[in-house]
Write a structure and sequence with these properties.
- The complex is a heterodimer.
- Chain A is mainly α.
- Chain A is 66% helix and 11% strand.
- Chain A has a single domain, classed as Winged helix-like DNA-binding domain superfamily/Winged helix DNA-binding domain (Arc Repressor Mutant, subunit A), CATH 1.10.10.
- Chain A has a two-stranded antiparallel ribbon.
- In chain A, strand 1 and strand 2 form a beta hairpin.
- Chain B has 7 helices and 7 strands.
- In chain B, a hairpin with a 6-residue loop joins strand 2 and strand 3.
- The termini of chain B are far apart.
- Classes of the chains: A mainly alpha, B alpha+beta.
């Protein structure tokens, strides 16, 4: 089972966020393609990809001899629904309260 | 100019979600119309679950009303296609074609695969792989690009909702 901690830990790294951005731009890249975009050893990139895969942020599938990497947006969507939407809704209602208060005074 | 191989990569979307439910429950939620009406786009999906069997996806009342309110009539049929392989409760492969409007109808038939396995007791792993080559209109909708315009959040939204429904008994619709 994937928990939020794994997702937040995976996202708390610049290189891993960059790798996700690369896959957002164009999905289904091979290790070699990803490796060519970062200044890091192949082993280092593999390690980061493993962390992302364990957090379910990427899904890999085989195509012939190649392993392709796909961005899985679902954990980020769940963080959005669980955390961000909540606070944004709160801000909106705070603004609505403010508007009512000001309008009542005037 | 991208190579054909790269284009294949680009046109495939892959989603994975872990759900506290038995594989059979996930299978039922995907294949039974009384379940498909309760999450995501909320349309009833009908499957003739044998190789070559027809699939039909219908628009919901909410979709029709929403479309009408925006001056875009929504047809009764949203999805047409055919079952390629049905291996309950583990694998469902479909030929899948969205026919919501002129743009999606002009798309090619796509290949949609659901894979369900049990990773640990009581947890199902659902992987959806959608090969959308030749179907740019459906690909945009399913990637959630028109969510702000009220077209739903695509597969990520549908599968998140499915997870909520199976785990809590309540989807986003309440």
């Amino acid at each position: 089972m994937i928990d939020d901690d794994l997702v937040f830990k995976a996202l708390a790294d610049k290189t891993r966020r960059f790798l996700l951005d690369l896959l957002f731009e164009r999905d289904g890249r091979t290790l070699s393609e990803l490796e060519s975009e970062v200044e890091m050893t192949r082993f280092g990139v593999m390690k980061h990809l493993r962390v992302l895969e364990d957090a379910n942020l990427i899904v890999t599938r085989r195509s012939g001899r190649e392993k392709l990497h796909y961005l899985n947006p679902i954990p980020i969507r769940q963080i959005h629904d669980r955390w961000i939407k909540k606070y944004r809704a709160h801000q909106v209602s705070a603004l609505i309260d403010l508007k009512q208060e000001l309008e009542e005074k005037s | 100019m991208m190579s054909p191989l790269e284009q294949t990569h680009v046109s495939t979307q892959v989603y994975r979600v872990y759900i506290k439910a038995a594989p059979q429950a996930v299978w039922d939620a995907i294949t039974k119309p009384e379940w498909t009406a309760r999450y995501g786009y909320g349309g009833r999906m009908e499957y003739d679950l044998r190789s070559g069997g027809a699939i039909r996806g219908y628009t919901s009342e909410a979709m029709k009303q929403g479309g009408a309110a925006q001056g875009m009539p929504v047809p009764d049929l949203a999805i047409e296609g055919e079952v390629v392989e049905a291996d309950p409760p583990h694998k469902l492969v479909l030929k899948w074609h969205m026919v919501m409007d002129a743009a999606t109808t002009a798309d090619a038939f796509t290949r949609l695969t659901y894979e369900i396995s049990q990773t640990q007791e009581g947890v199902a792993k659902l992987t959806l792989t959608h090969d959308l080559q030749g179907a740019p209109a459906a690909a945009s909708i399913l990637a959630g690009e028109f969510e702000a315009q009220g077209a739903g959040g695509g597969w990520a939204w549908v599968l998140s909702d499915l997870k909520s429904l199976l785990e809590t008994g309540k989807g986003f619709m309440g």
